[in-house]
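quick one, two chains, predict together pls
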Amino acid sequence: MIKQEDKFNLNSIGLQNFSLNNHQNLNDWINQKYLSLNYIKKLQIKFKLAQPYSFLELPNFFKKEKIKLIEQAILTINFEKKETDLFSFYQTIDLVSVKDNVLRTFHQFISSNEFVSYLHLLSGLKLKPKVIDMSGTKYLAKNYLLPHDDKLEGRALAYFLYLSNLNIKDGGKLDLYGKNKDRKIAVINSIIPRKNTFAFFQVSNNSFHQVEEVVSNKERLAISGWFHHA
Amino acid sequence: MLKQNFLDNSEINKYYFNKSYLNKAYLNKDNLLNIEHQLKISKSIILFSILGDHLLKLFQKEIAQLEYTPEFKLSFYSRKKARTNLFIKTICKSILKNYFKKEIKTINIYKFGWKDYTLLNDKIKSPKCLEAIFVFSKENWHENDGGNIVYVDVTGMETVIPITNNSLILKEKENGEKRYLKYVNSWAKHKNIVLIECI
């Protein structure tokens, strides 16, 4: 049961003015299902009511042909090993600096006014266009990212585009922490990486999450980063 | 067989130290001076095979019998903690006092297995001190299992100390120098590390 106070005021975030005809880029990149106004309304509520904090997991989000090109392109970029007390994985430089045309175009689209407005519709968050962080990440066997909140000045939304398929037995899922029924800190929700799933969550003091250790020989490949507050 | 509850601290000391239950190499005065010198220069030293065979067996038995409670705190650690007992406390205190001139204020016993770790955190105070950690791992621990102990000084410089069963780590910590235990990964399977942290 959705409480009245939890309902989004769609008018307040401009849904009444949202017209697919004005958003050619969105149509070129995103699967049609995600551009239907009725479905957007459902996603708005889902985001708002998600537990332990606001997040969305959008399977089969981008057009198939786009994902294929992105996947091929990211594999041509150099991944460097990153290791601290908190993590062990491989990462590319910020994709804003790469020369590859496919990745540059993808970066331009994700940071475009249109896509940022679309995310604003889904999340209700006012995001800054043009200024995003974006890099490729690769987790091999034994790689992990331990619990942390992502909180850094200006960060509003953390996002992930998964480019490989993992099953629960492979590890590598994104675990979201919150309080369970006994008021103890525990994993409340998880996202298992599936190719072409686009996911994002609202960054806050409570947005603790981890990438579980990859325990098989599968690679966990993704593009991820942050949108910032406008 | 010794029963710890029948012995007071002095009796335990007398029994073990008269019988040289420490590795003989560490009972030699020249070697102890050398250790002190090395610690002064490099700020850390690992003493391998610190306990003699008999005391090691008793220690491992005591460690195995302790009751460990899982502890999980976001941004800090995932580990199991046990309350120390008189036997462990007395032996650790005596070794450190008699051979390394270190008085202990606190003893903490932690067990780390798969998925356990500690993190660096600004909220943890880290004053200048000589830190001593006894390390035990009944099974053969491998570097690929994770679990390395890493000291990070205020400049970000790391001192990595691999896990070795029956070793004693002595570390001259500078003000602000912190320590973490690297995530224990799935290759460790059912193996565990026990650290007796003496501060």
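Chain B has one domain: 4-198.
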